[in-house]
Amino acid sequence: MLPSAPTSTAHRHALIAQARQTLLAEGAAPLRAEVEPWIARSWQRCLAQGMDPTQRVVFEAVSAPALRRSLEQNQALLRAARPVLEQLTRAIAGMRYFAILTDARGTVVEVQGHCDPSDPRASSIGRVGIDLSEAAVGTTAIGAALAELQPVWLHRGEHFLDDNGSYSCAGAPLFDPEGRCMGMLDLTGIDVPERPELRHLVARSARAMEDALLLQRPHALLLRMNWPGCTLGSEGDGLLALDADGCVVGANSMARQLVPQPLRAPGATTHCSDLLAMPWTMLFDAARRHPAQPLDLPLWSGLRLQALAQWSAHTHRSSATSTVSPFSPTGAAPLVSAPPPVAAPLREAETALIRQAVLDARGNVAEAARALGISRATVYRKLGTPKGP
Length: 389
Hints:
Protein name: Histidine kinase
Domain GAF: 79-201
Organism: Acidovorax kalamii
Keywords: Kinase, Transferase
Domain DNA binding HTH: 346-383
Radius of gyration: 25 Å
């Protein structure tokens, strides 16, 4: 007969406790299926900091100036996160969990959901300004997500400090449009059943916050991209935001996976022609002429993506000649037909001929150049890097 769920869970927790005792005795976590590698690494970091599982946990607030700086630095994140937090707390309303948002140091900057003020275990962590970093309170989903840069699920005895054994939490890191970790999102419950599926929910919510943060940035064009065959307009799209000159102003996590960013010195600008093997002006042409039609997007690696080129909401508002497209994916910026950025003068016949050749070659610049009898560099120079008058 198969063991009941409570017995099986209790057995697993006993194995976790045994693994932690082995770590304390031998200084190295055993390789057990019950203990994920990232948990063992966190335990080892706690030991290296001189922590003992039996020590008391004191949840302390950062200084007032430090909190003020954090809140000021994270205003854009808070604006992007709050609508997502409202939806998230509705989803977990019946589970006795609440949501915590921290900055990159693990300082709480927002709390939403049912955080019971009468329970000191909830009120001690569910306050803006509390330091929940790994260095302060040991192994938690918050500290682990910030250290490991991956979504995590942590339940009761998997915490390093005994005082934290009543908590269950799921956490996911948050990345800014440049790909830097800017904080994390956490779901915490107290004396609740194990719910590892919350790791997926918190990761999905974190990606929604990242997308909202990216869309707040001023940009001229948004590329929604994915692999051929995927439906564009969903939350799984890669988002690449461009300015009017084709420079990248930001990308979400999915876009950075689909189109690896080249190494750049801090503060250096990446142009979309460094990422895409096509004249960048074709993206603006596609947004103007066929805003609802997927665009073939060749990469320098030889791989191909599909994309929708969308004018930004700001472009829509500021352009008197704009017209709204009938296609607008849920949660996406409005798709509009608007004039493209004004390019420097080129001979119209030559430009039209080269552009048509590239279109006929489905974006394959090398093929278009061979058909025209010119070099690929000439195609890019004529279409992708216009010169001044």
